[in-house]
Amino acid sequence: MSPSTSTGGDSKKSGSGGGGFRGAMTPGRVAVLALAVLGLIFIFENTRHTKIRLLIPEVTMPLWVALLGTGLIGALCGAYFMRRRK
């Protein structure tokens, strides 16, 4: 290998790592982050107690707990299926 070849390889490595924060904030990630923030605002604005039927029993709990739990279950299911797809 010549010195110019090894130097050229090093410049490619440093160039790809230079993106840093800009490369991490894609439009898709910004949209998901905005939707997550709006979802959390919606969840925590609904603080009244409500009756929820869980198959057979009927429980009374704050609506935000039910919404947050449902959102977490949905996020876990989505993450599971996206991981299996790869």
Descriptive overview:
- It is built from 4 helices and 2 strands.
- Strand 1 and strand 2 form a beta hairpin.
- With 86 residues, the chain is mainly alpha-helical.
- The radius of gyration is 23 Å and the shape is elongated.
Strand order of the largest sheet: 1-2
Helical content stands at over 70%
Order of helices and strands: HHHEEH
In terms of per-residue confidence, which ranges show pLDDT below 50 for 5 or more consecutive residues?
8-15
Structural class: mainly alpha
Judging from the principal axes of the Cα atoms, what is the shape?
Answer: elongated
Beta-strand fraction estimate:
5-15%
Quick structural gist:
The protein has 86 residues and is mainly α. It has a domain at 49-86. The protein contains four helices and two strands, in the order αααββα.
List keywords for this structure.
single chain; 86 residues; mainly alpha; two-stranded antiparallel sheet; 4 helices; 2 strands; 72% helix
Topology (elements, then pairings):
Elements: H1 3-17, H2 20-24, H3 27-45, E1 49-53, E2 58-62, H4 63-85
Helix pairs in contact: 3-4
